[in-house]
Amino acid sequence: MKSDESGFILASADRSVPGQDAAPPDNAAATKPPSLAPASGRWRRILTLVIGYLLLYFGSFRAASLLEDQGGLIATLWYPPAGLTVFGMLAFGWAGVALDAVGNFLTLLLATKQGTPLLADHALSSLISALLHSAGYAAAILPLRHWVASAGLPLAQPAQIGLFLIAAVLGAMLETSISLARITLEAGINLARFNGLESGVFSPMQSVAMTWLVGDFIGIITLTPLLLVLLLPSLDDYLHPGRRNEAGWEAANVPGRMHPQILADTLILMMALLGIFSIPWSLGLSRHFPFATLLLLVPLAWITLRNGLSGAVLGTMVLSSGMVLLIALFGDSNYALEHQLVMIAIALTGLLLGSAVETRNQAQAALRVYTAQLEQQVAARTEALQLACQDMAFREHHQRALINAAPVGIAEFDAHGYCRYLNPIGCALTACDQEKAQGRHIFEFIHPDDRDHIEFIWHINSSYEEVRWLEFRLQGTNCWVSAHWINLFKAGQPFVGSIIIFVDDTERRRKDQQLWAKAHYDTLTGLPNRNLFWERLAQNLHRARRNRQNVAVLWIDLDGFKTVNDTLGHAAGDEVLQQVAHRLNGRMRDSDTIARMGGDEFAVILPGIGEFGAAEQVTADLTALLAEPFILKCGVGHISASIGIAMYPLHTENAETLVKYADTAMYAAKNAGKNQVAVWQPDI
After folding, report:
1. Residue 478 has what pLDDT?
2. Domain 521-679 has CATH 3.30.70.270
3. Rounded CA separation 445/451 (Å)
4. Which of 44, 154, 461, 558 has the largest count of CB atoms under 10 Å?
């Protein structure tokens, strides 16, 4: 019983409950192999099992014999020992074959009537019959045993049911064939004699064979499932105490446990069976309607749906045994074949429906376990996601705090230029709160005078990843800002937006403009000074050279300015210089440049001038304007102006030479009597 082939119980001891994993050991001690029970206790349980099996075998045989009528039909409605034989082989393997052979031999030997002659010959015949009986079933059942044993709960799958039924038919056919062959050989009768048909009915030997075959088949499909499902787990516990707990089984999930609900449902089924047989008999109706018992399929299906495979096999056994007893009670043995067909239909329905319900229950149990595992995984994943979200929220809050505290404006725009975010400093610089800034286009933040330039930058900058620096004015506050323009790209995707970081540059620009103005403008008159004059002259000469135009340079020196300073004071002189600048600006074009070169000297650049006549007309107007009296705070001042003219490119193409020629011409005009205009000539 200890070898691998010793039995189904040993092979299935480590099976786990469907849908439930084995419980892990709690400590290191739990991983040690269980201590072996004393040898005497183990053999005592084995001996008890052997004796119980033999008693059950003999008892089932005697119970069947008690129901036998004169024709032998009632006893052969089913043959319970065949079911016990198949159970023993499925449960114990070769040990079950040996048990069946011993049980069959002892049953045949004990069933021999006392006083029978040649008892030794009968014993030998019984031994041969027992061996052949066991061999016939073993050939069909043992190949099925390993597959059934490895599948966990026996007969819990429709495929198991199909193989079990095939093995049951084959086993019954082999045993019947072997028994008929043995009887034929012992009687010395030609087997062909019993295979003919007479008047369309089966010969006696064929009738016996059919009776044995169907009776054995019914006994197998009714008793074997009951023992496998309800008795096998208890035997497993009996032979291997504690092993089921070590394998991680829970009492609620152990198959074969009898529940009060199953017993109550079985009582209802027995009452239904009794009603099917007793009501027609009590009313004096015809009792020859065996197929009416098919109505019992309804309560059997109800019990199966409520209790699964355990309810199915118990209900099938109750119906089959009850039908045999009631048929014997009412003496209704004329329709044995019909009753057998009904019993087969009930058994097959119970087995198939029970396996389907058990499969559903296992699937539901597995689904519950999977759901619990999934819920645990979801809970763990949810917790991880919550922690990740909390960490992300903390980081976002931290970054948002840094951005909000940054002393610069930060704005984010999408690929189309619409604002996504504007930090508080940005809101202050643009005079726009965050709510109003959302969805506004970038051009709406730019001063109209700078909008064309920014629009141009926007279109050409969207395809570059480089950071671009630029300056512009804001619409709401007229503030000048210096901005760093950063484009955003994603891998494999085009331009997705931009971030602009800008700082207030108004004060710096104001100071720069003041410094530039001091460096390029005269503080007294507001006119360009010598530095700006030379820049403007270079620009105008470059433009004139490109456009082939003339440029005239006028050098102006005030006559009598020293007298005003000496007589009226330096404040009056400064006032005169300011009015001179005003009168010159009033006469010149916007494109002309009037510069104070120092003291009482002024210079004028006339770009795009025509011939000498145009320049002489300008100088004539200037001398006339400057000769008019100057109304001062301290009196009236009188001055005049001496003006020298030099032309580009007529006189020279060099800027310094051109100014030198104009200055030389001015001295010529002053020497000619002042308040004069002179054009540079080579002979001056």
Report:
1. 84
2. yes
3. 9
4. 154
| Residue 242, helix vs strand vs coil | coil
Helical segments of 199-251, H only: 204-226, 232-239, 243-246
Among 435, 404, 405, 400, smallest CA distance to 420 is for 435
pLDDT band at 659 (very low <50, low <70, confident <90, very high): very high
Most confident of 27-36, 112-121, 329-338, 595-604: 595-604
The single-letter DSSP state of residue 293 is: G
Structure tokens at 23: 């419980």
CA distance 324 to 344: 13
Domain at 406-504, CATH from 3.50.50.60, 3.40.50.150, 1.10.3470.10, 3.30.450.20 = 3.30.450.20
Q: Dig out the tokens for 211 from the structure.
A: 């009776």
pLDDT at 67: 64
Predicted TM-score (pTM) of the model is 0.52
**Size (the chain), residues:** 684
Q: Which residue has the higher pLDDT, 596 or 454?
A: 596
Residue 409 CB coordination number (10 Å): 24
Chain centre to alpha carbon of residue 229: 42
Distances from the Cα of 665 to the Cαs of 314, 556, 588, 621, 681, in angstroms? 139, 10, 21, 18, 8
Q: What are phi and psi of 93, to 5 degrees?
A: 65, -130
DSSP for 578-616?
Answer: HHHHHHHHHHS-TT-EEEEEETTEEEEEEEEE-SHHHHH
Considering 326-340, 468-482, 591-605, the range whose residues carry the highest mean pLDDT is 591-605
Residue indicated by tokens 């019954």: 172
Which residues neighbour 348 within 8 Å (Cβ) at sequence distance 6 or greater? 165, 221
pLDDT of residue 679: 93
Tokens linked to 373: 């595992």
| Nearest to 440, CA basis, from 477, 476, 478, 483 | 476
pLDDT higher than threshold 80 for residue 59: yes
Percent of the chain with pLDDT over 90: 21
pLDDT attached to residue 191: 43
CA distances (Å), origin 257, targets 308, 314, 362, 524, 567: 12, 12, 16, 117, 137
Q: What is the pLDDT of residue 60?
A: 82
